[in-house]
Recover the amino acids of this structure.
């Protein structure tokens, strides 16, 4: 059962609208993802900034520890003195005074201490109460102090002193008898994060060790399990989504410290991130409804302005086909259908009077075929041109886009103005140069084009769009090696034919891989002419038009260059503009 035009158009409209719905849905999802990515990037940059400041403080503290261990004369005096020496007490007292000043200066330092293993002596300067801090250090760091623990990593170690997690680092002095250590308070490191967290109520910030222990921040046990899973299985992207116990989805972004086993993470409530999108999402949802209404109106107008006149026209053709040659259509209001009606009535009158000239009709059909053959080239290149512009837009290379559009305007102006059966060879070559400029925009420094057109042959006449399919095929099928520039040359010359009549020789040469033996055999034999494929449509088109313009007087040949590359040669009867 054949469908009516109304059904076909309705089905076509449905096919066109369906991708629009999918596109709008994709746009909605895409815009949401873009907002998430931008916010995640902003949060990541913020964490990087704060983490950089934190690592800088740890690096400065490390340098302070190195200077103290290697350059302190008081430590050296203490190391060489005994308990019965005046220098012993004097060095300890001055060390405590100096370290007290240092602790006040370095805001993140909680305690500076020195431990002597052979005497089991521990002296310190701290922000905490002296004796309690000393007992906490002996208790929390006993295994490290009694075994003369010397770290091999440059990173700060996380330890528990007095029930509080701190960063810990020790170095031996020059004599090797003393161990100088520093405790850094994690709470003091987190002070900038407290200010950051207070600016937005929908953000949660915390510090966690690489083994999953929360060092700073308040989180439920269930939430910590989900957070730890993100650390154990880090995603490939910069952020991921975590579902917390409050039922909300959070964007999870974390950054590791360079100088310690700390991870600073931030949780952003996704609902608050998308607060500015509802209006946009409502607009996206309203567009399909508006499109449906417009389509309904469009179908009603099409039915009145197109479908009904076409039905009357089809009915008239059926009546005419039954032999009622005196039947005439009533003129329509539409200018276009009025013209169609006039032509139908005129055709019916000509048929009724038997005035159709078979030869003239045959020529009209042949000319229509010629126009169709010329038009086949346009969509082929049009798709390539859109592809080039699409890639330039993706790269955001706006100067090249302007240049490209300028070339396209010139190119399609030539295409649309090519209504004549013959054009000058100079016009054809200018069109080819413009085409190559478009290709060289797409492949900068990858294409080299040469052309040679003698001045005396510029006014020679050829069918339009005769050379372009071969230049286009050379780029499409021959340009496969990006290691060196791809060369295309078009050479035009005049030759003497066998009958003494001058002939026009056009040669297209490229530096590609050339033709295979099978391709040469089929192309030179014209096998593709009976059943052209998409790959050979341009060649078939040229061969067909050569036969229509020159009958059997034109010649088209394909061969390979011994030095590499393919060669296409056309030899045409010479025709010049009068």
């Amino acid at each position: 059962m054949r469908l009516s035009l109304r059904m076909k158009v309705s089905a076509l409209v449905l096919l066109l609208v369906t991708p629009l719905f999918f596109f709008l849905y994709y746009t909605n999802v895409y815009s949401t993802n873009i907002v998430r990515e931008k916010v995640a990037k902003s949060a990541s940059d913020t964490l990087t900034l704060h983490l950089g400041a934190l690592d800088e403080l740890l690096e400065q503290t490390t340098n302070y520890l190195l200077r103290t261990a290697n350059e302190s004369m008081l430590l050296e005096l203490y190391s060489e003195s005994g308990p019965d020496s005046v220098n012993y007490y004097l060095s300890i007292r001055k060390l405590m005074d100096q370290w007290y000043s240092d602790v006040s200066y370095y805001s993140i330092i909680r305690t500076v201490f020195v431990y002597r293993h052979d005497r089991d002596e521990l002296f310190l300067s701290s922000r905490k109460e002296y004796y309690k801090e000393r007992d906490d250090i002996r208790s929390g760091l006993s295994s490290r102090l009694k075994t003369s623990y010397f770290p091999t990593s440059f990173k700060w170690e996380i330890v528990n002193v007095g029930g509080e997690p701190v960063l810990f680092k020790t170095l031996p002095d020059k004599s090797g008898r003393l161990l100088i250590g520093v405790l850094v308070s994690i709470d003091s490191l987190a002070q900038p994060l407290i200010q950051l967290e207070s600016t937005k109520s929908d953000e949660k910030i915390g510090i966690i060790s690489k083994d999953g222990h929360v060092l700073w921040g308040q989180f439920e046990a269930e939430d910590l399990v989900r957070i730890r899973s993100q650390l154990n299985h880090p995603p490939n992207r910069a952020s991921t989504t975590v579902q917390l116990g409050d039922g909300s989805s959070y964007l999870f972004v974390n950054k590791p410290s360079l100088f310690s086993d700390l991870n600073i993470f931030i949780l952003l409530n996704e609902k608050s991130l998308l607060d500015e999108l509802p209006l946009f999402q409502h607009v996206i949802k309203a567009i399909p409804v508006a499109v449906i209404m417009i389509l309904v109106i469009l179908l009603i107008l099409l039915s009145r302005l197109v479908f009904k006149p076409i039905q009357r026209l089809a009915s008239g053709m059926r009546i005419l086909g039954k032999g009622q040659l005196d039947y005439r259509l009533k003129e329509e209001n539409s200018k276009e259908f009025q013209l169609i009606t006039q032509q139908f009535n005129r055709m019916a009158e000509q048929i009724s009077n038997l005035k159709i000239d078979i030869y003239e009709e045959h020529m009209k059909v042949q000319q229509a075929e010629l126009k169709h053959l010329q038009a086949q080239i346009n969509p082929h290149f049009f798709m390539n041109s859109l592809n080039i512009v699409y890639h330039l837009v993706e790269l955001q290379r706006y100067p090249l886009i302007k240049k490209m559009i300028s070339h396209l305007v010139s190119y399609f102006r030539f295409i649309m103005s090519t209504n004549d059966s013959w054009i000058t060879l100079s016009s054809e070559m200018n069109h080819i140069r413009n085409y190559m400029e478009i290709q060289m925009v797409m492949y900068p420094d990858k294409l080299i084009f040469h052309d040679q057109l003698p001045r005396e042959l510029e006014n020679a006449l050829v069918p339009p769009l005769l050379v372009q399919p071969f230049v286009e095929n050379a780029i499409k099928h021959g340009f496969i090696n990006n290691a060196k520039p791809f060369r295309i040359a078009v050479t035009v010359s005049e030759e003497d034919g066998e009958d003494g009549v001058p002939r026009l020789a056009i040669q297209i040469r490229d530096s590609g891989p050339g033709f295979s033996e099978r391709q040469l055999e089929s192309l030179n034999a014209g096998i593709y002419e009976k059943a052209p494929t998409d790959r050979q449509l341009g060649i078939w088109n040229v061969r067909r038009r050569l036969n229509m313009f020159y009958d059997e007087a034109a010649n088209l040949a394909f061969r390979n260059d011994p030095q590499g590359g393919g060669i296409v040669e056309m030899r045409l009867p010479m025709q010049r503009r009068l």
